[in-house]
Amino acid sequence: MAALDLTVRGRRMGYDSFYFLKKAYGIYPGVVAPVSARCLQAHYAQRQARRGPARAALDAVVGLAFQAWIPGRAAKVARKFDLGEAWRRRAVEIAHARFVDPNDLALFRIEDPAQLDGYIRRFEDAALNKRINPLGWTRECVLADKVRFEARCASAHLPSPRTVAVVVDGRVEIKTDPAGRDLVLKPADGEGGDGVVILERVADAADLSARLPRGRGVWLVQDRVATHPALRDLALDALPTVRIVTMVDEVGAPEVVSATFRFASVRGAKVDNMKAGGLIAAVDLPVGSLGVACKGYGGGDHAVHPVTGAAIAGRMLPDWAAAKGLVRRAHAEVFPDYALIGWDVALTPNGPVLIEGNGKPGVLMPQRAARQGLGVGRYGALLAYHLAMKP
Q1: Which residue has the higher pLDDT, 247 or 50?
Q2: Among 173, 282, 343, 379, which is disulfide-ready with 291 (CB 3.0 to 4.6 Å)?
Q3: Domain 227-389 homologous superfamily, CATH
Q4: Nearest Cα to 302, choosing from 279, 278, 276, 282?
Q5: Helices in the chain by DSSP H: which ranges?
């Protein structure tokens, strides 16, 4: 197992380097005039006014290259999702006019260009996030380190999975007796479920130590969290979580601005992530009811679970008010140094539990699940507010 985990970790480190490299330059959404969601018009007008001649020229060159890239990209996306020639032609037309990646047109199911007035393009998100959430892009980001995140939660008595052991470069520190328990091993800096291993029926500390990786890296071993009984017919073999995004509002209080429920689509999956083929469904914020589900990357819609036949659309999430209260409290009292946080919350028999926090929660999942752009609601309003507050 150690060799496998280290291979995964090596791929993760390479991915992180590429991730930060490609996000270093924020694409200006246009050649001369910006074309983006309405909530971002003031931001881009300010950015346009402040550009010097060299930056304006660079943006124009990049914009022209983007426009030239669109036809080939549309053809590739059409083949990938089997969308046909008519879709490809229409996608090229919309993408040229509205300066958008054809892949976003497919994933967000855009048919009318006017829909894009409410959507935040994925290539915009990193630059916007870096501006309002700069700490999330530094090595000091607690949200990007599961060990430090759990420690901060524990110090504030926030409900989170109990840490059983920490592994640092092969050195194992057992924090509590693991005997007779199912545990989860995860890399401290992992994302998207990479490197997660379920350790079933651990006999004792010696058995646990024998199963842990010995190479370089930091790993966290925690109790395996149980699924709330009301959600077991959707969970299959993986713990479902709800991604709840909070953003600090105009008076400095965290507000829930988006929520997406994630759950496995096939038996045997150990995590609920989109990369593992998981399903996503938008959550109605006031009451906690689910919409129709879909996969994160292509495929059809699901009003019922494709394996169990259990109802999805209209399903009420248990303890929804408590889950919203938990993330608001966590943001306000324990992680106030971030403007925006995406929380992964497990709904358990004992109430909601914080699994992790994300300083870069992304815009693909909530916009695809809700079939609506984030720009049309409070997310867009508060994003515009925070951008306007930055010099």
Answers
A1: 247
A2: 282
A3: ATP-grasp fold, B domain (3.30.470.20)
A4: 279
A5: 2-22, 41-50, 53-81, 84-98, 102-107, 122-132, 146-155, 205-211, 232-235, 320-329, 364-370, 378-389
Q: Where in the chain is the domain with CATH 3.30.470.20?
A: 227-389
Classify 261 as helix, strand or coil.
Answer: strand
Local confidence band at 24 (pLDDT 50, 70, 90 cut-offs): low
Q: What residues pair up with 255 in beta bridges, in sequence order? A: 247
Give the separation between CA 384 and CA 130, rounded to whole angstroms.
Answer: 14
Decide: pTM greater than 0.85: yes
Question: How many residues would you count in the chain?
Answer: 391
**Other Cβ atoms closer than 10 A to 188:** 20
Q: What is the pLDDT of residues 274-311, one digit of tens each?
A: 877 899 999 999 999 999 999 988 888 999 999 999 99
Find out whether 348 and 225 touch, Cβ atoms under 8 Å.
Answer: yes
Joined tokens for residue 177: 């007796």
Cα-based distances in Å from 276 to 252, 303, 361: 36, 20, 17
Query: Are 37 and 380 within 8 A, CB to CB?
Result: yes
Give pLDDT tens digits for 344-381: 999 999 999 999 999 999 999 999 999 999 999 999 99
- For residue 157, which amino acid is it? H
